[in-house]
User: Fold these one by one.
Assistant:
Number 1:
Amino acid sequence: MNKRKIEFYVGLFVVLGLICSSYLFVVLGEIGFIRDTRYPVYGFFTSVSGLKKGARVEMAGVEIGIVSNVMIDKERLLAKVELKIDKNMTLSEDVIASVKTSGIIGQKYVDIAPGGSDILLEPGQEIYNTESSLDIESLVRKFIFNNDKK
Amino acid sequence: MVTNFFEKTGEMTIRQVRSCGRLFLFFITGVINVFILPVQFGKIIEHTWFIGAKSFFVIALTGVFTGMVLGLQGYYSLAKFGSEAGLGAAVAITLVRELGPVLTAIMVTARAGSAMAAEIGVMRISEQIDALKTMHINPVRFLFTPRLIASIISFPLLTALFNVIGIIGGYISGSILLGINQYDYMDAVIKNIDIGDINGGFLKSFVFSVVVTTICCYRGYYTHLYSGFGARGVSMSTTNAVVQSCIFILIFDYIITFFLV
Amino acid sequence: MTVPLIQFVNIKKNFETQEVLKGVHLSIYGGKITTIIGKSGTGKSVLLKHMIGLIKPDSGQILINGEPIHLLSHEKIKVFQKELSYMFQDNALFDSMTIYENIALPLSEKRYYPKNRIKDKVMYQMRELGLLGSEEKFPAQLSGGMKKRVALARALVTDPKIILFDEPTTGLDPIRKKNVHTMIKEYQEKFEFTAVIVSHDIPDIFNISQRIAMLDEGIIKFEGSKENVLNSHSTIVNAFIRGEEA
């Protein structure tokens, strides 16, 4: 092996390695420019049980953003969810955000039903109309107890 | 009889403490020499070629089969719960956080770590290390430092390669062979990996590179102290280097995971 | 009487339980060739390694120009060691490097040496030792005699003031042997370096050395000029020279 050849293979190896690293960081790790193409809005829910960071945000079944953070609001004692919505998607002020489940025990996602207002939601503002996640357990309980009463 | 027992215990303790001290000094000397000019470019490139570029195909092959088997196993486990769509997440998280760094480090230990220990061991028994000393060349700087830098460059890059190829392997078995929707697969991969997982994986491979290189070079360098002179000594220090490197990879893997999660 | 360049006073060295040197007294004088003879395995190489600092004695003193080495400053020892060069018994060539890189190594690892000066020096040594044409070969591709000459070239390339030879002619044919001896003598006359040679080539080696020392059973049995050795009445020395058990 002469020196030139060694240098060539080392260069090739480093370039390929860096391509793989940057693929991991940028595409899978979602750093850098991808974050800049989305803007945040907030929603308060009484329960978001099962909703996780990274879950889909859909409108009419089409993905328009992701859930970027789920935390508890200490003053209102509600779940505060940060949604990152694609920049080219504008939401009106009166949209309805609801936590839904795909399939019966599938993943939770946030569905946004379109509103009719002309006033648009600015980045960082709150979605007022929210519906919490359907808790199957409590639904089942309600159903059983209702039957008992009859 | 009793004094004999204490003598033996004492002797063993002293020997262990001494060898810890020697390992530490060896490591520190190597690290300090990273920052002492001139940078040994020629040797770093040569070792990067040996440790990194020549491991490329082994890593690619291991990566694709690891990914494929993860896809296969994951598919049948997830199919029981009807959530095959999450396969991408299962494969990618396992690879990026755990298997990528660990398997890469073990494969490189087997390929390059053993060679390091054997080469330096032969240099020790054929008096080449003594020859360096008589030429006023610091043998630790000459032998260990360039290998350390080359490993620190190579390990993370090989790990990244392993991860990406492994994810493709999972795609091959999950999507092409078992028929999961390809968008579901990639979607699950992208959604479920966040920057913390990737940083953690790279941190692991960085630590492994330092651990493996230090142990392998140290074992070779002190072949004459632990295993005696001659071909037998070199073969013993090579075996020890590989076994100890693998054990320490797994120990450090646990420690890092413990602190990351 | 002049002060010896290197003086050993009662040097003792044990390896594990084996006593190798049991109190060696020896003087090496500047500008002369001193030869150490003795049976194989009596610690001649160990003695030589003490001079260059590869092995530290268990007890006893080493004097450099009459000053004990442990009283010398770090810088002075460094300066002294820079003038030393060592040729190993088994050559100790680096088998992953070419012949050119091997010979150039003591210079190329130093920052203050420009590349073309290294090349001049290496080429000069290679020409002198008849090694031209094998610059790009590796040590494993050379014969035993060639390797010896490469090792010799590497020892000479730094222009040392003191050279320690550990059996420089073992494994060479009589012609090459004579060449190496003549070369050492010529170089020594030219550059006036001090040489210490461990050798078994009796009586050839006597022709080039000025002083002879004989090491046996861990002590120096005889030390003196060449004439003294040949006229010595010591039975051990005479027997060894004739190749008989004493």
Note: Chains A and C do not touch (no CB pair under 8 Å).
Number 2:
Amino acid sequence: MTPTRLRRAAIAAAAAALAAFPLLSDNAYWQNLAIMAFLLAIMASAWNIISGYAGYVSLGQSAFLGIGAYTAAIAATALDVSPLLTAPLGGVTAAGAALLLALAGRRTRGIAFVIVSFAFLELAAIVASNWSSVTGGNHGLALPLPTWDSDYLNLPFYYALLALLALTVAGSWAIRRSRLGAGLVAIRDDESKAEGVGVPAARYKTAAFAASAFPIGVAGGVYGYYVSFLEPAAMFDIVIALQIVLAAHLGGVGTLWGPVAGAFLLEPLAQFTNQSLSGPDAGSWRLIIYGGLLSVIVLFFPKGVIAELVARVRRWRGAEPPALPGRRLTPVPRALPWTPQPSPGTGPLLVVEGLTRHFGGVRAVDGCSFTVERGSITGLIGPNGSGKTTVFNLLDGGLRAQAGTVHLAGRPIHALPPHRRARAGLARTYQATRIFPSLTVLENLLVPGRGSRAGSGTGSVAGSTTRAREWLEFVGMGEYAGHPAGRLSYGQQKLVELAQALMLEPRLLLLDEPAAGINPALVERLCEIIRTLNRGGMTVLIVEHDLPLVLSLCDRVHVMAEGRVLASGPPGRIEHDPAVQDAYLGEHTTAGAAK
Amino acid sequence: MTGLAQTLAFGVLVGGVYALAASAMNLIFGVMRIVNLAQGAMLMLGAYLAYSLWRATGLDPLLLTLVTAPALLAVGWVTYYLFVERARTTDPPTALVTTFGLALITTGVIALIWGNEWRLAGPGYAGRSFTVAGLHLPQAQVYACLVAAVVLGGLWLVLNRTWLGRSVRAVAAGPEGARLVGIDVRRVWAASYALGVAAAGAGGALLSVLYPFTPSSGYHWIGLMLSIVVLGGMGSMAGSVLGAVLVAVGEALTSAYLSPGWATAVPYLVIVIVLLARPQGLLGARLREDMSRA
């Protein structure tokens, strides 16, 4: 059997065993253990969506357990139905709260997010204990005892949580496979780059946060009924939030099954320590054990204990994929996989006027103006520090200009956020490549998606995959589609990043030093690719230090010095322009004064 | 009117101790870019040490800062090499989770040694007040605020008037550059971390006479310190002092005019609102790695 089929069979067998277990044994201890393990697995799996895939670590995800539990309990009392029926309402409220928090916190990143999540949990606990008219405050809220025959014992809870676990894992799988999932991992790897290739990062994170809160909220509804008594300290418990983080790290952060496996490992351990430790010091020892586990695991197995052990065994058995560099590249095809549509409007494709950006006292870009003609290959050259890359960062929105306008095909784009500029038809590559190392080469191309310019960010994944393979073939990287992008050589990464930019089907392609740091054969190839793209109708703007390359490739060249364009013209004339020679050979002051 | 003035005066007094606790956390963040969630537990460790020594010797708990600060300096030094050194090399959220683990371990150890009962040191002046212009100022609060000001002043002198302080500020500005001019960056990190923990030890001695505490009071203090640091601006000492007074006054006002139950929500509300609305805080510089461009 292949590993995939073996895995499927194992999962099916485990699911069947779990489904049949309570029918075979009515041991209440084991049933309780299973129920608690399901609960933790649901929470860890849901946590993984925002914190594993998108890399936004939440220390307060258990807040949604409490929110779900209280909502379901209060609704059940008000409607006089079983809390099992109102549990989905708990999920809706939890997702709603997550949505609000994420919308308000669009700009929080990194540790700020961790702190907000922690504060949100504490705040929820305080609200629950102070809002006593609804929640019963610190006296707690008692739920009715189950109405079903006592012979069934815990079965309804058991199956409700098992089903919810299955749905959560299925949902996590679907998200990871979708464009949303690729976008989330891209955000984890490099958020601003993701925005640069058209990922609406704020919207994706909000969606992921709500998707993470929903199953936890539903589980909270069921769990509240199971324990039949709600009090703020127990329902909004930092220790539960911690167990979630711990479970995910035990199994594997960012993997589909890791959090589930971790929960199934951790819960028995938790129960065991509950029993074997007793007396007044039991709580203290538990804190020490959890704290120690957390620190050690997070520090020494950042990707998860099981995940890293598996990787180590693979390496030891030599089952790693063979090294990638050194294979021959295929010749550049003559035809493009896609024909650029003529851009609307008349006049130059890109019009930049008075662009300005200062950093403190440094005038990196200072009233820079130039145009890029339709169908041209335009070069932007200038000595080090003249502001070329900053201009690129201002064009793609990575930096905000302090003054000046940018029009693409007649449309002002200088006020748009980066992902909207990408969708408006602007794509770029970086001086030091910035592809997403944890995604495969193919997935890297799926992050921008296809036909994205038309605004249909949700085009079919299958169609995108076909197009992505075509572009990979075009740049000569077709063979590497399934490989992790982080393992490619530098030159190969440059080609992949170029293909990624092409997936945006740009009107204007910005290339930042495409030839820097790669071997001469690859430079040849890049030139050929650029010429082919241009013949196919694509407009290209290049920043490059290799003057002979620029002069041979470009129709028109702008020369920058001290943050502005000081000369423009065809390559032949630029070469002999005294102002340009001044700029390159020193005498900056005269060059600046000449302007 | 006197009611309001009384509340404000009390808030400002409380703010002194808050400022010391928060500055300790902020020093570590400013130099190492690590949010040390163990600071709350370290504060408790200082409080329990002061309490035990006061019970054993009858010495003034506020003066015992002279003992708790060096003791915690040692604890900080050891934990730096055990945990923090490695955490520093990971990404910030991972480091933060690690320090939380350290907080749990410390809390557990404190509970093993001292138990879970509520404690409060009660020197002779506890319960007495000064009366100034019709305002009642609890003597313990006044003395604690003064000691906090002295410790903060000492910290400021160390950072601004000594070679160690200069190295610390150089490393805070950029470890690479500091290394190039011959600073042993690793030792500076260890020293700053230990100094931050020592300041928490001093703060713990102060709060041992002010508020009853259990080992898990540390969690409440994590929230408080975070809110102050976030409000004042991460890495800004002056911001921490300003933030401390604002949070303390906010708590006092909420407690007086709404209910003491909601006063505990103030720090967390401050955190959520500030991080959502003005992530760089009042006096802090924007950090590129934390915030998206606005």
Note: Strands of chain B lie at 129-132, 135-138.
